[in-house]
Amino acid sequence: MKKKNRKRKKNMQQEDEEEGEREGKKRTLNNVSSFFLVILMKEKEKTKRGEEISIKKEGGREEKETRRKKKKRKRKKKRKHGERRRKRGTQKKRETTQEIEQKSKFPEIEQKSKGSEIAGMMGSGKTTVGKILSQVLCYSFFDSDTLIEEEVDGTSVADIFKHYGETFFRDKETEVLRKLSMTHRHVISTGGGAVVRPINWKYMHKGVSIWLDVPVEALAQRITAVGTNSRPLLHSEVGDAYTKTFMRLSSLFEERSQAYANANAKVSLENIAAKLGQKDVSDLTPTAIAIEALEQILGFLKSEDGYC
Length: 308
Description:
- The chain has helices spanning 2-48, 67-103, 106-112, 126-137, 144-151, 157-164, 166-180, 198-204, 216-226, 241-260, 269-276, 286-303; strands at 52-58, 61-66, 115-120, 140-143, 186-189, 208-213, 265-268.
- The chain is α/β, with parallel strands linked by helices.
- It has a domain at 106-303: Rossmann fold.
- The protein has a five-stranded parallel β-sheet. The protein has a two-stranded antiparallel sheet with strand order 1-2.
- A hairpin with a 2-residue loop joins strand 1 and strand 2 (61-66).
- Keywords: Amino-acid biosynthesis, Aromatic amino acid biosynthesis, ATP-binding, Kinase, Nucleotide-binding, Transferase.
- One of its GO terms (molecular function) is ATP binding.
């Protein structure tokens, strides 16, 4: 009997010891978990403060880098990239100007012309070509649509059409052209529909008006590629993007073609492509178009005896 009691007591002691070991292991495990949890929280805090977050290898040695340093390095790289792009852009402009200088006699235009007004359908490249002409002639460049947007507190042309109507826009357009006609040494990119009002031609003929004549197919391709969101006169059509754009542009061109013919000079992209041996007018560079525009302006000035 006493042996059984001693055995039972011994078993109970072993169980207590085993239970104690299990509890000790649990406490140890909890302590370790808490320790790593604290470390993890500290690392998160470091990350928030922009402290050490990454390690990169350079030249065989490890270098710790902070978030702040990383951002600074990226900004510096982006700034250098921007500087290279600006240099390339400046060089390209310089080459464009030099190319035109070699192929045109623009000093005569500077002496005889008060300015130039560029007309044409939407998407014909009036702004791009106009900026090149202004650089070559050392004239000021104006975009009539941009000036109208500024007059209406920065409202886009599409929103002006939507909220105020086309008549309101055309009135603003006429007023802008009237003001610009009183200036000298300018190149003006007009809106595609500026030609529909006879009064606008009175102001546009103060200088040499140029019509950029681009095939409707090429216009439809250009506009479809960039979207019609900024083209209020193209929003009402439904169907395939290219087809609806082509149909609407064809209708607009039919309405305006006689008005465009009032320009003093016509720059036909089809003729330029034929002279250069190119099949697609979309392959023509803005420089080639600007050179033709300068030649057409010069031809007009020579035909107008005493023009000033």
